[in-house]
Amino acid sequence: MSRHDRHSAILDIIMDEGSVHIDDIITRLGVSAATARRDLDHLADQQLVTRTRGGAIANPTSTEPPLRYRTSRMADEKTRIAKAAAAMVHPGDSIGLNGGTTTTEVAREIVLLPELTDPDVPVTLVTNAVNIASEMTVRQCVRVVVTGGIARARSFELTGPLAELILPSISMGTLFLGVEGLDERGAYAQHDGEAAVNAALVEAAQRVVVVCDSSKLGTTAFTLICPTASIDVVITDDGAPADQVEALRRAGAEVRLV
Length: 258
What we know:
This protein is an alpha/beta fold. The chain contains ten helices and 15 strands. It has a seven-stranded parallel beta sheet, with helices on both faces. Strands 1-3-2 form a three-stranded antiparallel beta sheet. It is globular. The model has no long low-confidence stretch (mean pLDDT 91).
């Protein structure tokens, strides 16, 4: 297991259980006590956890891990979801992507499309995610439009009034929306500023496609982005609970399992 994967796994344990002891890390990850201590010290230095005697607890000022530590969670499922989403895109389309690990994978799959080769017929990409914009700017067949705003270090998303001002002037065909929770009532984000910009992206889109792995289904977060009535399609993995899939379909969303 790489150092990055260990850090991600430790953060997962702390987020799920609230704390972790060095002995737990040694047993679960198969590492030495010295390695476990170094990993906890590194995460504490980044203010992601608070060190305790013999372990660590969740940092009360850090409610979510940075994007770079979330990329390894359900990676195979996210890749399948991203491929299915990218297959909906054609040269000349205008699309939107908010921030997140799954939408980042969608962007990467889009630029691999074999038909996306003519720079005179680019895909126009509207995004509030600076990491996605950075990766896509160098692609000749993608025209990048960035919303503006204040960047959040944990998600790389631009938020605030600058982001919300430009979006009412933009119309896009399909928004691929990453979420932190999704149930029959709607889609959710943890951060209210991100939710506000994501809601503006929803309003600017003719079609809204939620891309999320099955761990997000049946869960909520702090702020509602949009009601399920505003969602056209949900693409999730085939591990999705049948009752959650049925609830979303009853609420009017098309659900695609991949």
